[in-house]
Input
Amino acid sequence: MKMIILDRDGVINHDSPDFIKSPAEWIPIPGSLEAIARLNQAGYRVVIASNQSGIARELFDMSTLNAIHQKLHASAQQVGATIDAIFFCPHAAIDNCDCRKPKPGMFEEIGKRFKVSLKGVPTVGDSLRDLQAGFISGCVPYLVLTGKGEKTRDTGGLPPGTEVFPDLAAMVNALLRGASAPVSA
Output
């Protein structure tokens, strides 16, 4: 089974320093949903792994998060894309849980649920914690420069072998060509 693990905010949709707190605030990055459709057509199962501490902060509740994810699924389906699963951590950083990225708990749960090793599975994020969680789990890390990506790249400390792309569409194009064309490392 081919699989890819994507962060949500800043990779698939525009991010906000004030959190995405409603379906109206969830706006896809141009080309991201079409990139997911191309992954599906190439036989990839697409899984999202997302920290959602806005729940712990009481900025939104589970019904709102479900509504945001319903909009994500509906928007994806409109372009022929399918999201196989969405995993999220509802905790705040101070909770010190195992599922909040950069810890690997969410990735371990993905591996268990799909009964696969994550060794070599591509993971795409816009923050260091996204990449660290994937790298610790054996995934191949890809940074996109959307969302917090430029700041993450400029700060440095990326996991070894991280490739950098302007956005999810460019990363998927390179992945499906079987050759990478990173912006920088």
